[in-house]
Amino acid sequence: MRCKCIYVCRSSSDLNSTEDSDELIGSVQDAEICLLKSGEMTLSVPFSVEDVVQFGDKSRELFIRSSCYSVILITATHPGLTISWVFSSEPKSIAFSVVYRENLDTPPEQAKVLIPLTRCNSHKETIQGQLKVRNSGEYTLIFDNSFSRFLSKKVQYRLSIEKPEVDNGSDCSS
């Protein structure tokens, strides 16, 4: 299964739901903000764009204790980049979200949820996604295990950054 942006781990029945989308988005955003404000964080891993570019195809691990969450912070200084991720979890599922803030001093209440918190069966299949950086700032990838009272999780992940291609007009014929 390949997941992209807003539709990470959503089934086709979720996408065709007749629920009022404004009401749904408001309640989902509250979940991420509440988690960032009052949840217990296991680990926060900050990366710059240059750090992620240097990863290459290397896989990394993130440990999330039961009833907690962990985050990967990516500081993007230029719009136009594409942040991509691939992850799987052991021994069971993990919830995933992406939140944007102008900087680390921005209060969680002012964060913008780019991908709503969604529980992913990443223990059964690899989850892939990407988003386009529209504004410079902090992009926070949240791996949430707060729903699990007893099981800690290990997330294997790969990140990549694609820089925009600059069209110099060399392919134009005269």
Automatic annotation (TrEMBL):
What are the BP-aspect GO terms?
plus-end-directed vesicle transport along microtubule; positive regulation of autophagosome maturation
Residues making up the signal peptide according to the UniProt record: none
Record-annotated GOLD domain positions = 32-161
GO CC terms in record: autophagosome; late endosome; lysosome
Q: Which domain of life is it from?
A: Eukaryota
SUPFAM superfamilies named among the record's database cross-references: Supernatant protein factor (SPF), C-terminal domain (SSF101576)
The portions of this protein that span the membrane are none
Alphabetical list of PROSITE patterns matching this protein: GOLD
The protein's name is: GOLD domain-containing protein
What species is given as this protein's source?
Cyprinus carpio
Its ancestry begins with: Eukaryota, Metazoa, Chordata, Craniata, Vertebrata
